[in-house]
Specification:
Helix content is 40%, strand content 15%. The chain contains 7 helices and 8 strands, in the order βββαβαβαβαβαβαα. The strands form 2 sheets. The chain has a 6-stranded parallel β-sheet, with helices on both faces. The mean pLDDT is 96.
Length: 172
């Protein structure tokens, strides 16, 4: 069954988990643009994407805005309570939800959803709470790989990719 909602952590999933600081107090994160295709695939199929992250930065807000991800929660310590709020607003259930996370704060939500995943570099004690572990590390397209895996298992990846390619060529 295709999920109706995919929730993702950011640091360690969309990024390599590194936090970069300059001498003026600026903070930087490196995102892999490959993950934006995961959002595009979800959008094509009507799957909602939500971000729940423990950090609270303008950087993540800007990335979510660029990708038109409207469900964004930052500075969250209790990701299950936050997910429950999302489920109440969207009408989705835990069993209709997939989640990808990589660290301690993600475990309760990994245990609660219908399909849970981790990037390749998540610690073994985190991976044991996931249904699937990817080949890609966080920051290397792990979110896209997670989405593509789900769509492959459901047998809809190729058709969805074809639809996206057709739309892109039709607009030229």
């Amino acid at each position: 069954m295709l999920p109706k909602l995919i929730i993702t952590d950011i640091d360690g999933v969309w990024t390599d988990g590194g936090m970069y600081y300059d001498n003026q107090g600026g903070e930087f994160k490196k995102f892999n643009t490959s993950d934006s295709a995961g959002v595009l695939l979800c959008r094509q199929l009507g799957i909602q994407v939500a971000i729940i992250t423990g950090e609270n930065t303008e950087i993540v807000s800007r990335r979510a805005k660029k990708l038109n991800i409207d469900i964004l929660f930052q500075g969250i310590k209790d990701k299950v309570s936050c997910a429950e709020e999302i489920w109440n607003k969207t009408g989705c259930t835990p069993s209709e939800t997939a989640f990808i996370g990589d660290d301690f704060g993600d475990v309760p939500l990994l245990q609660k959803v219908g399909f849970a995943g981790c990037p390749a570099n998540a610690s073994e004690y985190i991976k044991k709470h996931a249904h699937w572990t990817g080949m890609k590390k966080g920051g290397e397209g792990a979110f896209r790989e997670f989405v593509e895996h789900i769509l492959t298992v459901e047998g809809v990846l190729d058709a969805t990719v074809d639809q996206i390619i057709s739309k892109l060529h039709a607009t030229k």
